[in-house]
Every structure is written in structure tokens, then in C-alpha cells.
Amino acid sequence: MHYLSEASRTALIVIDMQEKLMPVIADGDEVLRRALTLAQVAKLLTIPILGTSQQPLRLGRTVPAVEAMVEQSIEKDDFDACAEPAFLAALAPERDEIVVLGCEAHVCVLQTVLGLRHRQRRVKLVADAIGSRQNFNKAAAIERARSAGAEIVTCEMLIFEWLRSSAHPQFRDILPLIKNLGIAHSPSR
Predict the structure, then answer these.
(1) How many CB atoms lie within 10 A of CB 170?
(2) C-alpha dihedral sign at 21, 27, 31, 37
(3) Which residues contact 103 (CB under 8 A, 6 or more apart)?
(4) Domain boundaries, the chain
(5) More confident position, 180 or 165
(6) What is the Cα–Cα distance from 153 to 91, expressed in whole angstroms?
């Protein structure tokens, strides 16, 4: 087992970042900004990005900026994306490290993490790119995911692990995205 995340072995999963859901997520703008930044880096490093949407007729379509980043999107009714055969089929076996972000942390994100762990998948949960309506639910989801064997990471942790070195050929292209993570955006901007 590898001790650092490897871009060549990673798949990025974006759970239910939908138009009607994001406005009610605590710090939703920040969660979205971080998710998009991580997706941009994944694109530059040719990491496949899979998205899900929970009952889009009720919760709206995926936020357009997110939708533009995902290579494949799976509509679902079950909270655990693993219950959807198309989701499991979309996970390439050589991409044995699954990075999960999205909403809501304590429902669809957590149940998908638990479903992946149940299937013996190596999972990293991106703590600063997940959200819930209440922060206490997000905190409980992180703790439960950790207890189930998921590694808890941040966007910056992952990016620097994927790059490994400032000599990486994509480092200069990715550096402005890393710097952007450190800038807190307020809803009034």
C-alpha cells in the first residue's frame, strides 16, 4: 500500500453538487470553490472525474461549473452511489484510490464512502471540499468515515502528494490554483 496519494492511481468522485442543494450548504460557496479547484488540478494531471446527482428532477441539475469538469455523471436515487451499478462500472480497476468530495457530507457522501470501504476500496475523504447544512453533521460524517477506514485529507494535501515535487512538469500551472485555496472568499464578493 502506498503511503502518499498517486495521481496515476486516483479517481475523483464529486457527489451531488446540485443547484438546489448548494445554497443551503453551510459555507457552500467555499465548498464549491475548493471542489472546483481540486477538479481543475485533477484535469491537469489526467485524473478521471466521476460525478453523481441525487434525484436531479427534485434537487436540480449539477452546478454547471462542476458539470463541465466531470467526465461521466451518474443519476441516482439511493444515497449510496455504490448501489447504482453504473457508478461501480465507471470506476476503473487500475484507479484503486478513490478521492471523494461533495454534499451532503453526512448522507450521500458518507454512505458512498462506507459503500466503497465495504468493497475494500482505498478512500480519501476531502474534509475541506465536503459540506452539510449543519457543520455538526459534517464533523460527525468525517469522524465516522475515519472510523470506517477512510483517510481524511484536504485539497492541499492531495495536490502536493499528486505533484510530489516542485520539479513536476505541471507544478507551475498548478501553483496559482494552490495559492487560490488559501484565499477565503466571502459571499459578498
Answers:
(1) 14
(2) positive
(3) 15, 16, 17, 18, 21, 22, 25, 28, 31, 109, 130, 131, 132
(4) 7-181
(5) 165
(6) 21
Q: Beta 72-76 vs 10-15: how paired, if at all? A: unpaired
pLDDT in tens, 111-158: 999 999 999 999 999 999 999 999 999 999 999 999 999 999 999 999
Are 97 and 131 in contact, with CB atoms under 8 Å apart?
Answer: no
Q: Over 60: is that where the pLDDT of 174 sits?
A: yes
Give the separation between CA 9 and CA 31, rounded to whole angstroms. 24
Model confidence at 178: pLDDT above 70: yes
- Is 7-181 in CATH node 3.40.50.850? yes
Q: What is the pTM of this model?
A: 0.93
Quick: pLDDT tens for 67-89. 999 999 999 999 999 999 999 99
Residue 42 and residue 126 in contact, taking contact as beta carbons nearer than 8 Å: no
